[in-house]
């Protein structure tokens, strides 16, 4: 796919970006390289390949779900300036 400098300048204008001539040339070159890579990747025959959910065929080891800390709700709420029914009360910010 061809991508030329005028398109870069047009996009820069629409995005309200100021780019110099050398920057426009560099961006044009980089975008052209990216589009060439995409074309190359699309030309690969993947008909016999099954889609993967993950590139590695591994199983995640899971640990047992155990409680490791005690409930400290009452202790922590005792430190709060104001609470009610197990909830922290904070000053109203927006009216």
UniProtKB/TrEMBL annotation:
The protein's annotated catalytic reaction(s) are: L-aspartyl-tRNA(Asn) + L-glutamine + ATP + H2O = L-asparaginyl-tRNA(Asn) + L-glutamate + ADP + phosphate + 2 H(+); L-glutamyl-tRNA(Gln) + L-glutamine + ATP + H2O = L-glutaminyl-tRNA(Gln) + L-glutamate + ADP + phosphate + H(+)
Q: Which UniProt keywords apply?
A: ATP-binding, Ligase, Nucleotide-binding, Protein biosynthesis, Transferase
Q: What is its EC number?
A: 6.3.5.-
What superkingdom heads the lineage? Bacteria
Gene3D superfamilies in UniProt: Glu-tRNAGln amidotransferase C subunit, N-terminal domain (1.10.20.60)
Supply one GO BP term: translation
Pfam families associated with the record: GatC
Question: What are the protein's GO molecular function terms?
Answer: asparaginyl-tRNA synthase (glutamine-hydrolyzing) activity; ATP binding; glutaminyl-tRNA synthase (glutamine-hydrolyzing) activity; transferase activity
Q: Which SUPFAM superfamilies match?
A: Glu-tRNAGln amidotransferase C subunit (SSF141000)
TM segments?
Answer: none
Question: If you read the UniProt record, what top EC class would you report for this enzyme, in one word?
Answer: ligase
What InterPro entries does the entry give?
Asp/Glu-ADT_sf_sub_c, GatC
HAMAP family attached to this UniProt entry: GatC
What PANTHER family does its record include? Answer: GLUTAMYL-TRNA(GLN) AMIDOTRANSFERASE SUBUNIT C, MITOCHONDRIAL
Give the quaternary structure.
Heterotrimer of A, B and C subunits.
Similarity remark: Belongs to the GatC family.
Function of the protein: Allows the formation of correctly charged Asn-tRNA(Asn) or Gln-tRNA(Gln) through the transamidation of misacylated Asp-tRNA(Asn) or Glu-tRNA(Gln) in organisms which lack either or both of asparaginyl-tRNA or glutaminyl-tRNA synthetases. The reaction takes place in the presence of glutamine and ATP through an activated phospho-Asp-tRNA(Asn) or phospho-Glu-tRNA(Gln).
Annotated protein name in UniProt: Aspartyl/glutamyl-tRNA(Asn/Gln) amidotransferase subunit C
UniProt source species: SAR86 cluster bacterium
């Amino acid at each position: 796919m061809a991508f030329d400098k005028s398109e870069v300048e047009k996009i820069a204008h629409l995005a309200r970006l100021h780019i110099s001539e050398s920057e426009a040339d560099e961006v044009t070159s980089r975008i052209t390289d990216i589009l060439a890579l995409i074309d190359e990747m699309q030309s690969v025959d993947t008909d016999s390949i099954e889609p993967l959910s993950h590139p590695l065929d591994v199983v995640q080891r899971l640990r047992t779900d155990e409680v490791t800390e005690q409930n400290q709700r009452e202790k922590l709420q005792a430190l709060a300036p104001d609470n009610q029914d197990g909830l922290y009360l904070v000053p109203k910010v927006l009216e």
